[in-house]
Write a structure and sequence with these properties.
- The chain is globular, with a radius of gyration of 25 Å.
- Strands 2, 3, 4, 7, 8, 11, 12, 15, 16 and 19 form a 10-stranded mixed β-sheet that branches. A 3-stranded antiparallel β-sheet has the order 1-13-14. Strands 5-6 form a two-stranded antiparallel ribbon.
- It contains 15 helices and 19 strands.
- Helix content is 34%, strand content 19%.
- It has 518 residues and is α/β, with parallel strands linked by helices.
Length: 518
C-alpha cells in the first residue's frame, strides 16, 4: 500500500523515487553508510614542490615535447573537455546583495561599480537592453540608479545574467565582436587540438536546465569561428547523469524528505562527470574549467603550455607502454626490474612500500605491472598567490601501508582538527588551476574503466538547506581529486599567466580579460 513501510524500511513512495533516479538501491545504502561513518580524511605527507613532486620543464626539453604533441594533434588524438555547468549566481553575489538591499554595502564599492561598469564586455548589450526599455544607460549611471542597472543585468528584466551559466556570459570585448566564455574555448580548441583534417574536437558538460541555451548558442556562432579559424568543430554536449546524484539526509543522518514527502536527491559535484569523461571517443583529453579563459592578446602562454603538458604526457605514456610490454612477459629480463622501479620512483613519483624489496621477481613483476597499467594525467600547477582551492601533495595510501602517491587535495579532504596536517596544508607553495591532460587508453589501445581507479572513501559531506530546512549533502570524490586517486599523476609547474579564473564579476576587470597587451 502506498506510503506504508516495507521490510527494507522504505515506503512505496521512497522506492518509486529511488527507481526514477536510476540509482541502484545498494548504492543508496552505501551513501547512507558514508553519512553515518563520515568521509575518511586524506593523510598528507608533505606538499609537492619543484624538484620534489613538481616537475620543472627545462628549456632544452621543450622542442621534443612540442613535437610529440604536434604528432598527436595531426593524428586527431586530442580533445578538449570543458566542465561548463557552473552557474553565474555566485559570481554576482555582491551585486545580488546590492540589488536586494537597494544599495552597495559602502560608498567605495558603489563608486567602483559606477566607474568600472563600462569596462565589462557586456556593457554594449546592457546599453541595448536599456534602450529597449526606453531609457539611456549613461543617464542611469549619471543619476546613480544602480539598483535599476543591477536589475537589468541580473534579472529577466534585462540580460538575466544572474540565472545564466558562466558559459553564456560575455567575457571579452573585441573590435568586431563580444565573446562568451564558451566561444573562447572554441578559439582555444582551434589553436591546439585541431588536426590535419582541420577538425577540432571539444566536449562540454552542462546542467540539464541550460543544455538548450548552450546548444543554441554554439549553433549560432559555430560558422563564424569555423570560417575565421579554418576549422570544423566536432562538438558535443552532455549532462550529469541523474543516476550519479546522491541522497540527502537530515542532521540525524536519516533520508531527507521535502515538504511533499519526497526523497531529496542532489547533484553530487564534478566527480559525477567521470562517466562523461570516460564516454569520450578519444584517448588524449585536455580538461579545463569554463571560466579559465583569457582574451586573445594573452593566449600565447596558454596555448604553449597546453602543448607542453600534452607532449610531456605523451612522452611519459610511451615509456610506460614500453615497460608494460616488457612486464607482460612472464619472465622479463631481471635487469629491467630495477630500471622500471627507478622510472616509477623518479618519473612518476610513486612511493614503494619497504616490503617490495623482499618480493620474489614474479611478485615484483605483478606489482609493477599493476602500478603502471593505469590512466595517466599530467597536471599543471601554478605558484600559490592566495587563490582558494586545492593543491599538490604527496599523500599516504590509506589502503596499503608504506605506499604514497601524488594527489590534488582540497582543504575539505583533510582533518582540520589535526595541527600537523594543517601545518602541511599551509606550507604548500603551489595551487591547482584545473589544467589537466589525461591519457584514457591502456598500452593495448583499450579504454580504461575509470570507475576502477576511484577512491570512493574520499567523498565530501556538506551542510546545505532545502527551503529553510537544514540537510547534509554528499559530494562524490572530485573529478581531479578522489575520482582520479588511483591514476598515475605527474605535476608540472606552469606560469601564472595560464590561470585567469572568473570567480567574481570583478575578475573580468583583470588584465587577462581585457583585450590589450599586458
Amino acid at each position: 500500500m502506498t506510503g506504508e513501510k516495507n521490510s527494507f524500511g522504505w515506503s512505496e513512495n521512497d522506492l518509486q523515487s529511488i527507481s526514477s533516479t536510476g540509482i541502484p538501491p545498494g548504492e543508496i545504502e552505501r551513501q547512507l553508510a558514508v553519512f553515518r561513518t563520515g568521509a575518511f580524511p586524506v593523510r598528507l605527507l608533505r606538499p609537492c614542490t619543484p624538484g620534489d613532486g613538481i616537475t620543472v620543464i627545462a628549456e632544452k626539453e621543450k622542442h621534443a615535447l612540442l613535437t610529440a604533441c604536434e604528432e598527436a594533434r595531426q593524428d586527431g588524438r586530442l580533445m578538449k573537455f570543458v566542465p561548463a555547468s557552473g552557474a553565474a549566481s555566485r559570481m554576482f553575489r555582491e551585486w545580488h546583495v546590492a540589488l536586494m538591499n537597494g544599495k552597495f554595502t559602502d560608498a567605495t564599492r558603489e563608486d567602483y561599480f559606477g566607474e568600472t561598469l563600462r569596462q565589462y564586455a557586456f556593457y554594449a548589450d546592457l546599453e541595448k537592453t536599456t534602450a529597449s526599455k526606453g531609457k539611456l544607460l549613461e543617464q542611469m549611471l549619471d543619476g546613480k540608479d544602480y539598483r535599476g542597472i543591477l536589475a537589468l543585468i541580473l534579472t529577466d528584466q534585462g540580460l538575466n545574467y544572474g540565472s545564466l551559466p558562466k558559459a553564456l556570459l560575455k567575457f571579452h570585448s573585441y573590435p568586431d565582436s563580444l565573446r562568451t566564455a564558451i566561444e573562447e574555448h572554441l578559439v582555444e580548441a582551434a589553436m591546439y587540438v585541431r588536426d590535419d583534417n582541420r577538425i577540432a574536437r571539444i566536449h562540454f558538460t552542462v546542467s540539464g536546465e541550460h543544455e538548450r541555451l548552450v546548444r543554441e548558442k554554439l549553433l549560432q556562432v559555430m560558422s563564424i569561428y569555423e570560417l575565421r579559424f579554418d576549422t570544423v568543430f566536432d562538438f558535443d554536449i552532455s549532462v550529469q547523469d541523474p543516476a550519479t546524484h546522491t541522497i540527502a539526509v537530515d542532521l540525524e543522518n536519516r533520508p531527507f524528505h521535502d515538504e511533499n514527502g519526497k526523497l531529496v536527491f542532489r547533484p553530487s559535484g564534478h566527480g559525477a562527470l567521470l562517466s562523461n569523461l570516460e564516454s569520450l571517443d578519444t584517448d588524449i583529453v585536455f580538461v579545463k574549467n569554463i571560466d579559465n579563459v583569457v582574451a586573445d592578446s594573452h593566449k600565447g602562454d596558454t596555448v604553449l603550455w597546453k602543448k607542453l603538458l600534452a607532449g610531456y604526457l605523451l612522452t611519459v605514456q610511451q615509456e610506460i607502454f614500453d615497460y608494460l610490454l616488457i612486464l607482460e612477459n612472464p619472465t622479463p629480463s631481471v635487469e629491467k626490474i630495477p630500471e622500471i622501479v627507478n622510472f616509477c620512483e623518479n618519473r612518476l613519483n610513486i612511493g614503494f612500500p619497504e616490503i617490495f624489496n623482499g618480493f620474489a621477481d614474479c611478485e615484483k613483476r605483478h606489482f609493477l605491472f599493476d602500478t603502471l597499467n593505469r590512466p595517466l594525467r599530467v597536471c599543471g600547477m601554478v605558484k600559490n598567490e592566495g587563490e582558494p582551492g586545492g593543491g599538490p601533495f604527496r599523500v599516504e595510501n590509506r589502503l596499503k601501508v608504506g605506499e604514497s602517491s601524488l594527489q590534488i587535495v582540497e582543504e575539505s579532504q583533510i582533518d582540520r582538527n589535526d595541527p600537523q596536517q594543517m601545518a602541511i596544508w599551509s606550507s604548500s607553495t603551489h595551487f591547482n588551476p584545473v589544467d589537466l591532460v589525461c591519457g584514457l587508453n591502456d598500452y593495448r589501445g583499450r579504454k580504461f574503466n575509470l570507475a576502477e581507479f576511484v577512491d570512493n572513501e574520499t567523498s565530501i559531506i556538506t551542510r546545505k538547506s532545502e527551503k529553510g530546512k537544514d540537510l547534509l549533502a554528499l559530494e562524490r570524490p572530485g573529478l581531479w581529486n578522489g575520482s582520479m586517486a588511483f591514476w598515475n599523476t605527474i605535476f608540472v609547474e606552469v606560469p601564472p599567466t595560464t590561470f585567469a579564473p572568473v570567480k567574481s564579476v570583478n575578475d573580468l576587470l583583470r588584465g587577462a580579460h581585457q583585450n590589450r597587451q599586458a
